[in-house]
């Protein structure tokens, strides 16, 4: 068995673990810092909206020796608007000019052909009107809002409202980071970007639901025992699904990294950047948020409940009494279960199970 597989089995059995929930203030601080950085980047640089959202034109030149910088200068001079040029792998150049009057496309093509030393008829032009772009933008926002509402309703029904709130916070965190990185990097926001965002929100939700399912099982009968607080139970459930979340994320990131770094970077297929960057950043942020934000936030919300506060007091009182007797943690675990501790908390505490003693079998005849 591989070392990672062995670690996963030990995490599941509760033999090893990391106190993710106990150190939640550190994770909250890191997340707030990253989110503020993303918001500042978004406010300062803004998003580079594709022509699908703001209207404009995309010109694709034939193979040319001109550089992308030269193409940008030529396009800005011909149109009077900002332009973005991408050198593609086959030597052609894709020039995007946002907000340009589509009636000027022929004039722009002529001037581009002159500056780039190509035939005007060989330049392909795709035009998008501003009204159509506005409609697409509204539909994108509508789809995102509907997705968020359905997620909250589903989680509230399948689990509880506290978990739905925690999942929503994690999703907003992932979305903010991804959009902020788009602003900092300067990639165009296209319909492919929106598709990528919706996809990574689904992946993030998947990881979160896996952890929440463990929490749902673990909290059954938790108030009938005095060994673990809710936060400790949540941390054990999180450790039990940790390796599964990491494996799922890594396997999903590998092909996306191929799209982003090889397809978009090496081969020059710039259109792949639109969706691959959102997928890559969103998948990584989704795995982070499900571990470091969603579960600790659920623990914080649950421990505001009166019964969980009472449970924590009982647990701490029992530990204080055991410490006064000089008992170690191992001795406490080896002690016979209290009457209340015999309740079913197998999901709450992932550890060594007590095997029932076998009855003596009948003697052979």
Automatic annotation (TrEMBL):
<keyword id="KW-1133">Transmembrane helix</keyword>
<feature type="domain" description="Protein export membrane protein SecD/SecF C-terminal">
    <location>
        <begin position="111"/>
        <end position="303"/>
    </location>
</feature>
<feature type="transmembrane region" description="Helical">
    <location>
        <begin position="193"/>
        <end position="215"/>
    </location>
</feature>
<dbReference type="InterPro" id="IPR022813">
    <property type="entry name" value="SecD/SecF_arch_bac"/>
</dbReference>
<dbReference type="Pfam" id="PF07549">
    <property type="entry name" value="Sec_GG"/>
</dbReference>
<dbReference type="InterPro" id="IPR005665">
    <property type="entry name" value="SecF_bac"/>
</dbReference>
<keyword id="KW-0812">Transmembrane</keyword>
<dbReference type="InterPro" id="IPR048634">
    <property type="entry name" value="SecD_SecF_C"/>
</dbReference>
<dbReference type="Pfam" id="PF02355">
    <property type="entry name" value="SecD_SecF_C"/>
</dbReference>
<dbReference type="InterPro" id="IPR022645">
    <property type="entry name" value="SecD/SecF_bac"/>
</dbReference>
<feature type="compositionally biased region" description="Acidic residues">
    <location>
        <begin position="329"/>
        <end position="344"/>
    </location>
</feature>
<comment type="similarity">
    <text>Belongs to the SecD/SecF family. SecF subfamily.</text>
</comment>
<feature type="transmembrane region" description="Helical">
    <location>
        <begin position="164"/>
        <end position="187"/>
    </location>
</feature>
<comment type="function">
    <text>Part of the Sec protein translocase complex. Interacts with the SecYEG preprotein conducting channel. SecDF uses the proton motive force (PMF) to complete protein translocation after the ATP-dependent function of SecA.</text>
</comment>
<feature type="transmembrane region" description="Helical">
    <location>
        <begin position="246"/>
        <end position="269"/>
    </location>
</feature>
<feature type="region of interest" description="Disordered">
    <location>
        <begin position="322"/>
        <end position="365"/>
    </location>
</feature>
<keyword id="KW-0653">Protein transport</keyword>
<comment type="subunit">
    <text>Forms a complex with SecD. Part of the essential Sec protein translocation apparatus which comprises SecA, SecYEG and auxiliary proteins SecDF. Other proteins may also be involved.</text>
</comment>
<dbReference type="InterPro" id="IPR055344">
    <property type="entry name" value="SecD_SecF_C_bact"/>
</dbReference>
<feature type="transmembrane region" description="Helical">
    <location>
        <begin position="26"/>
        <end position="44"/>
    </location>
</feature>
<feature type="transmembrane region" description="Helical">
    <location>
        <begin position="275"/>
        <end position="299"/>
    </location>
</feature>
<keyword id="KW-1003">Cell membrane</keyword>
<protein>
    <recommendedName>
        <fullName>Protein-export membrane protein SecF</fullName>
    </recommendedName>
</protein>
<feature type="transmembrane region" description="Helical">
    <location>
        <begin position="140"/>
        <end position="157"/>
    </location>
</feature>
<dbReference type="InterPro" id="IPR022646">
    <property type="entry name" value="SecD/SecF_CS"/>
</dbReference>
<keyword id="KW-0811">Translocation</keyword>
<keyword id="KW-0472">Membrane</keyword>
<keyword id="KW-0813">Transport</keyword>
């Amino acid at each position: 068995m591989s070392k990672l597989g062995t670690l996963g089995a030990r995490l599941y059995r509760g033999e090893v673990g990391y106190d993710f929930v106990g150190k939640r203030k550190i994770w909250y601080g890191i997340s707030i810092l990253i989110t503020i950085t993303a918001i500042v980047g978004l406010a300062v640089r803004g998003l580079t909206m594709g022509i699908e959202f703001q209207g404009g034109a995309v010109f694709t030149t034939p193979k040319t020796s001109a550089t992308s910088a030269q193409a940008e200068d030529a396009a800005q001079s011909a149109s009077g608007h900002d332009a973005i040029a991408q050198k593609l792998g086959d030597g052609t150049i894709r020039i995007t000019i946002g907000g340009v009057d589509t009636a000027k496309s022929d004039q722009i093509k002529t001037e581009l052909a002159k500056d780039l030393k190509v035939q005007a008829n060989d330049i392909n032009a795709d035009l998008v009107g501003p009204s159509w772009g506005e409609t697409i933008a509204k539909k994108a926002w509508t789809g995102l809002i509907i997705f968020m509402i359905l997620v909250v309703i589903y989680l509230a029904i399948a689990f509880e409202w506290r978990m739905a709130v925690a999942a929503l916070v994690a999703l907003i965190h992932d979305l903010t980071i991804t959009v902020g990185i788009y602003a900092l990097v300067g990639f165009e926001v296209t319909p492919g970007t929106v598709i990528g965002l919706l996809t990574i929100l689904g992946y993030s939700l998947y990881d979160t639901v896996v952890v929440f399912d463990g929490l749902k099982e673990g909290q059954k009968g938790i108030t009938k025992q005095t060994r673990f607080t809710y936060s400790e139970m949540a941390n054990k459930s999180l450790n039990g699904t940790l390796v599964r979340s990491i494996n799922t994320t890594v396997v999903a990131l590998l092909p996306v990294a191929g799209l982003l770094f090889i397809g978009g970077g090496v081969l020059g297929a710039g259109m792949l950047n639109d969706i691959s960057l959102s997928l890559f950043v969103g998948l990584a942020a989704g795995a982070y948020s499900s571990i470091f934000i969603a579960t600790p936030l659920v623990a914080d919300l649950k421990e505001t409940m009166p019964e969980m506060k009472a449970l924590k007091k009982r647990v701490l009182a029992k530990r204080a009494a055991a410490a006064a007797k000089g008992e170690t943690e191992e001795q406490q675990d080896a002690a016979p279960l209290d009457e209340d501790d015999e309740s079913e908390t197998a999901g709450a505490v992932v550890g060594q199970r007590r095997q029932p003693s076998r009855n003596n079998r009948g003697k052979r005849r």
